[in-house]
């Protein structure tokens, strides 16, 4: 029996709007990911502990793929 691990999962991809992250989110959509959460730095500053807690509380992800970085 073949199962799809990503099917119907709520996945948070930090850095999901960036170069690598956008490729990953596209792939996850193709694998049937139920809900993709791509937090933006203007909404959640991942350098601040309280902001991370707020992100987790508001979105309740089952899986976190951490790709966020300071670039430029």
Short overview:
With 72 residues, this protein is α/β, with parallel strands linked by helices.
Which structural class is indicated by helix and strand composition?
Answer: alpha/beta
Give the end-to-end Cα distance, rounded to a whole number of Å.
Answer: 46 Å
Mean pLDDT: 93
Low-confidence stretches: none
Instruction: List SSEs in N-to-C order.
Output: EHEHE
Biggest sheet details: 3 strands, parallel
Q: Portion of residues in helices? A: 25-40%
Label the overall shape.
Answer: flat
Number of helices: 2
Number of domains: 1
**In order across it, which strands form the biggest sheet?**
2-1-3
Tally of extended strands? 3
Strand content: 15-25%
Q: If you compute it from the alpha carbons, what radius of gyration comes out, rounded to the nearest whole angstrom? A: 13 Å
């Amino acid at each position: 029996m073949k199962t799809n691990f990503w099917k119907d999962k709520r996945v948070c991809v930090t850095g999901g709007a960036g170069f690598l992250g956008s490729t990953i989110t596209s792939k996850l959509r193709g694998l049937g990911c139920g809900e993709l959460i791509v937090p933006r730095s203007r909404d959640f500053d991942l350098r601040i502990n309280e902001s991370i807690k707020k992100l987790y509380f508001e979105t309740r992800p089952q899986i976190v793929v951490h790709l966020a970085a300071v670039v430029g």
